[in-house]
Amino acid sequence: MTGPAFIQRKRSFILSVALIALASGISGCSTTDKTTTGSISPAASNSPTMPAGNFDQMNQQQLMQASTSLGTRYQGNPKDKATAINYATVLRMTNRSDQALAVMRSLAIAYPKDRDVLAAYGKALASSGQFEAALDSLRRAQTPEYPDWRLLSAEGAILDQLGKTGEARDLYRKALQVKPDEASILSNMGMSYVLSGELSTAETYMRKAVGAPGSDSRVRQNLALVVGLQGRFDEAEQIASQELSAQQAKTNVQYLRSMLSQQNSWNMLKDKKSPKG
């Protein structure tokens, strides 16, 4: 059976596998950032005017230490913009989305028109699953005459999760016009095609992302996920082992393999014939 209904079921299955795999950390990210389907940095340094941070390079223990330090500073001055945004970022990265949202909601009241605050508030809303409110905040942070590619990409990622694939990809293309060959945008575009079940196209974008300047560990791990979803487990493990320990890479691929073997789902992925006519 290779008709439209089968293709739709296959794509729905891939969507569920990709989302579960990402939520379970199979791609190696410290947490699931709902403002990205790829690897745009979750750090507050994505803002065009905030100083750069290194949170995305930290492990969980370092992030917890950073949250303690930033929490102390935040309590001393809750209206300090940089401290509050960085604190909320670390809270999101340590799976404390509700607390991060509370921090950013308070800051947004103090700075209702600040672009940096609106952008960070949008990410906090998205991480708590409040996608429509997140879109509103990100759009208010955007300046149409000088569009910020990071906000375009983040908005696209949220639209992808709302099932608005065409709108999401239009935004990724606009972001690439502003920032050509940016690894995180290409990775977001690749994950968009993963979510729609178009794995070959997804792999093309992921490989472009891996070869682009600024590519990081998460981009390469997303490539491993796409390759694994196509059943090339040995190749996926080889890619993953460049970023993770050999045992972590093996465990991730074994987990993915077990998911694909459930309910005869692997046969759905193996059948790559397109519907005729």
From TrEMBL:
Keyword Signal applies: yes
Keyword Ion transport in record: no
SUPFAM superfamilies registered for this protein in UniProt: TPR-like (SSF48452)
Entries under Pfam families matching the protein: TPR_16
Domain of life: Bacteria
PROSITE patterns referenced in this protein's UniProt entry, alphabetically: TPR (PS50005)
Positions of TPR repeats: 149-182
Residues making up the signal peptide according to the UniProt record: 1-23
Key words, A-Z: Signal, TPR repeat
PANTHER family: PROTEIN O-MANNOSYL-TRANSFERASE TMTC2
Protein name: Flp pilus assembly protein TadD
Organism expressing this protein natively: Phyllobacterium ifriqiyense
